[in-house]
Amino acid sequence: MDDLVWLDGVSEETIRREKARARDLRKTRWWQQKTASGECYYCGRRVGIKALTMDHLVPLARGGRSTRDNLVPCCKECNTKKKTLLPVEWEEHISRKG
Questions:
Q1: Domain limits for position 75
Q2: pLDDT bracket for residue 85 (50, 70, 90)
Q3: In angstroms, rounded to a whole number, what is the distance separating the alpha carbons of residues 44 and 57?
Q4: Tally of domains in the chain
Q5: Is 54 a member of any domain?
Q6: How many CA atoms are closer than 13 Å to the CA of 15, on its beta-carbon side?
């Protein structure tokens, strides 16, 4: 049976695999260093290490992958608001709010 397809033709299986890779990267020294400042990549607020989430710059549902160059620490508020927006779309969203 074929995988169900999500946004932009990305299969559920692909998304599951990439989420597992992200969980593995979260356990690495690299991620510890990325989150050490406790600062959100998007809004710049210092929320503390434990309050940071892992965000995909290019979301998985839009074809992004769980690679070091596509993952950033961000606060829950920004992560929730960004949803599946691409970086350029998110910047436009923020600039309209300001």
A1: 7-97
A2: very high
A3: 15
A4: 1
A5: yes
A6: 17
Lowest-pLDDT range, 31-40, 45-54, 84-93? 84-93
As a whole number of angstroms, the distance between CA 82 and CA 93 comes to 9
Q: Is 92's pLDDT higher than 80?
A: no
Q: What's the pTM value of the predicted model, to 2 decimals?
A: 0.85
From the number of C-beta atoms within 10 Å of its C-beta (0-12, 13-18, 19+), residue 90 rates as: middle
The reply to whether 2 falls in a domain is: no
Task: Give the span between the Cα atoms of 93 and 98, in whole angstroms.
Answer: 9
* DSSP string computed for the chain: -PPPB-GGG-BHHHHHHHHHHHHHHHTSHHHHHHHTT-B-TTT--B--GGGEEEEESS-GGGT----GGGEEEEEHHHHHHHTT--HHHHHHHHHHH-
CATH number of the domain enclosing 35: 1.10.30.50
What is the reported pLDDT for 96? 67
What local confidence, expressed as pLDDT, does residue 6 receive?
A: 52
